[in-house]
Design goal:
heterodimer; A: five-stranded antiparallel β-sheet; 36% strand; elongated; B: 5 strands; 23% helix
């Protein structure tokens, strides 16, 4: 578990990097963009958050299959201080239609406020393909079946 | 720049405005890397990309995912976004032009002033291949 601060300047930087000029992402009352928690996890983790490495996946062959964000109240606001729990679930190995293997894992992050209320969740599905996979990606259907 | 504070109540079949981004540059990718803390060298270092068998650096999936976040919040707002789910289906390279679109697929009235509104979104490359699909679910409150 680690603590993360939702910062106004970081929200602004993230919004601009994703080509957003939406006024809700500016100023002292800024809310975070829909995918901002992904950056929060990377920036505030107390140890470098190389989940693929923790899983034993080869980082150069690991693809991002899915990413899901769930907000239980509003989008987190600038100034919010959240505690973040990370756990790995849903590990699996699948045989692809071309006979190759792929390994999957789901990383769940839970974001709670000072009262312990769950305010947001992030679920990342990582896929490790077999070498020499770079040009050989799982089809949409294969990812969907995960 | 302004965006509507609370867009009008949507209906099934309503389409968002088509919007294009790009051509995507290495600078766009590096800027997102800095903003998100994703410094996997495959996204900015040509040597690492070649060593991994890639023709050049590839974009960060969450960058184009973030563009869909920009698209949906400009279209439907930020208030009451409950769920945002991205499925990555193809890679994006420098020089690609991405086009985002979306349609309301579900409006479930929760009594008078509130509805659960679901939009399906797509980001496609100039070749026509979809690179990210997304589902956005709002707990919509009538203004």
């Amino acid at each position: 578990m680690f603590e993360a601060l939702i910062e106004q300047g970081k929200i602004r930087e993230f919004a601009l990097a994703t080509k957003s000029f939406h006024p809700d992402f500016s100023g002292g009352q800024a809310v975070s963009p829909p995918t901002f928690l992904n950056a929060v996890s990377r920036i505030w983790a107390d140890v470098p958050l190389d989940v693929a490495e923790q899983l034993g996946f080869d980082v150069s062959r690991t693809l991002h299959g899915e990413e899901e964000f769930i907000f239980h109240t509003t989008l987190p606001h600038a100034g919010d201080r959240l505690s973040v729990d990370v756990r790995i679930t849903g590990r699996a190995e699948k045989v692809r239609r071309n006979g190759g293997r792929m390994r999957l894992a789901v990383v769940v992050r839970e974001f709670r406020d000072a009262d312990g209320r769950l305010v947001a969740e992030q679920r990342s599905t990582l896929v490790e393909t077999e070498p020499p996979a770079p040009a050989d990606e799982p089809t949409e259907e294969e990812v969907a079946r995960t | 720049m302004t965006a509507p504070a609370t867009p009008p109540f949507p209906g099934v079949g309503d389409a968002g405005p088509q919007r294009s981004f790009g051509p995507i540059t290495r600078t766009d990718i590096v800027r997102y890397a800095g903003a998100s803390g994703d410094f996997n060298p495959l996204h900015h270092d040509e040597h690492s990309a070649h060593a991994a068998g890639l023709p050049t650096v590839l974009s960060i999936g969450m960058f184009q995912g973030g563009l869909l976040g920009t698209y949906v919040t400009d279209w439907l707002g930020t208030a009451s976004l409950h769920r945002f789910r991205l499925r990555f289906t193809a890679r994006v390279w420098p020089g690609d032009t991405l086009s985002c679109s979306g349609t309301i697929t579900e409006v479930e009235n929760r009594g008078g002033q509130e509805a659960r509104v679901v939009a399906e979104l797509r980001c496609v490359r100039q070749t026509g291949d979809a690179v990210v699909h997304a589902t956005a679910e709002y707990m919509w409150r009538r203004p």
